[in-house]
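Feature request disguised as a bug: please show the residue count (103) next to Monovalent cation/H(+) antiporter subunit G in the output. Example input:
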Amino acid sequence: MFPHSCLLVVISAFGFLRLPDFFLRMHPPALAYTFGSWCVALAGVLYSSMIESRPVLHPWLIVIMLSITVPVTTLLLARVALFRRRAAGAAYAPPPLTPRRDS
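Example output, currently without the count:
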């Protein structure tokens, strides 16, 4: 499993170098991380099931927790980057969906 996970890390690093924008850079590592997590969990299930001669499914809890927390973290990082871009006054920042209310 080691060579496969190294390949996924190289693919995600290539995404960091190749893509010019923060928002574009978020996507390749997230895909590689998700695929790598599924592969490691599957390997854990197969290995544990072979050793104990019965189905062992608790490694899937890792994947379930990751599939809940990774999208939330990605969304929060994207919102922070968008807020910082707007606060810096970047011309290419999209406007907010709701108008600002000045007090």
